[in-house]
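Re: [ENG-882] Designed sequences occasionally contain unexpected residues at chain ends

Forwarding the minimal case from QA. Structure tokens:
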């Protein structure tokens, strides 16, 4: 899987979806960041690492999950969202995003 860098703001929607988006209230949460895990094996990669069954993730069903140390200590908590083309978006505290990206990269096989 590819672990993409964090981003704090993401443009959503398209010209066709503008009417739909104007009916929504959108808030930019400066204390949150998004990591993207992409690739054919993204679900399998996260399945063995996180505390929730990642196979249950669907576009209409975000999941709350955590990443634990080998001793069982909670290191990170996050919300998982199913993105387009199998990408998994990880919503995490912005102050912890880089540490989470490093931790996930430790488990990535080349």
């Amino acid at each position: 899987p590819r672990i993409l860098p964090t981003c704090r703001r993401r443009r959503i929607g398209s010209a066709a979806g503008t009417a739909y988006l104007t009916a929504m209230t959108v808030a930019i949460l400066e204390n949150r960041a998004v990591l993207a895990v992409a690739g054919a094996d993204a679900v399998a990669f996260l399945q063995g690492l996180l505390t929730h069954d990642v196979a249950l993730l669907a576009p209409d069903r975000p999941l709350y999950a955590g990443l634990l140390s080998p001793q069982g200590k909670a290191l990170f908590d996050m919300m998982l969202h199913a993105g387009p083309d199998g990408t998994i978006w990880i919503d995490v505290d912005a102050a912890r995003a880089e540490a989470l990206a490093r931790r996930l990269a430790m488990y990535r096989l080349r």
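QA comment: On inspection the terminal residues look reasonable. The first helix runs from residue 18 to 22. Proposing we downgrade this to a documentation issue.
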